[in-house]
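Example 9 (inverse folding). The structure is encoded as follows.
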């Protein structure tokens, strides 16, 4: 009777276009899990969207 690893969902909603990005992880450290999710999400968005985010954050 071993321990089973549990997967926990974490999502990011892009309110500009209504897209939802969900990743499942099993990290026991919440901060690591959130950072891993943000890195994965950032790598999957297009360069055009990255430029929009950078422009919006500077204003």
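The amino acid assigned to each position is listed next.
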């Amino acid at each position: 009777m071993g321990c089973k690893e549990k997967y926990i969902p974490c999502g990011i909603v892009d309110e500009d276009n209504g897209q939802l990005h969900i990743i499942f992880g099993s990290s026991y450290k919440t901060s690591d899990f959130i950072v891993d999710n943000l890195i994965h999400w950032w790598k999957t968005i297009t360069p055009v969207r990255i430029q929009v985010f950078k422009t919006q954050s500077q204003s």
